[in-house]
Amino acid sequence: MNKDEQEQSERRHVIAICLDEAEDVDNAVQSAVSRGKDAASSVGETIRETIQAVRTARPSVVMVRVNKESLAKL
């Protein structure tokens, strides 16, 4: 099991704890939602950084798909 799988397993374990009272359920849901938002924010930031790195490395790259006829005209 790699590090990410271990972390996911640990997170699941925290949520799987027995919930006896409505307040416990409320706290568990709020905690799960908060962690989900943090994860989404982290993913968004990673994607943003990756795109920025690509733009910086290749400021003028443009990809165009052409068919054989168009390629022959070029």
Characterization of the model:
The protein is mainly α. It has one domain. The chain is built from three helices and no strands. The radius of gyration is 23 Å and the shape is elongated. The mean pLDDT is 73.
Layout of helices and strands, plus pairs?
Layout: H1 3-15, H2 22-57, H3 68-73
Please state roughly what percent of the residues sit in beta strands, choosing from under 5%, 5-15%, 15-25%, 25-35%, 35-45% or over 45%: under 5%
Parts with pLDDT < 50 across at least 5 consecutive residues: none
Radius of gyration: 23 Å
Question: Helix and strand string, N-terminal first?
Answer: HHH
Give the number of DSSP strands: 0
Number of helices, where a helix is a run of at least 4 consecutive DSSP H or I residues: 3
How many distinct domains? 1
What proportion of the residues is helical, as a percent range? over 70%
Envelope shape: elongated
N-end to C-end Cα span: 52 Å
Helix-and-strand structural type: mainly alpha
Largest sheet: none
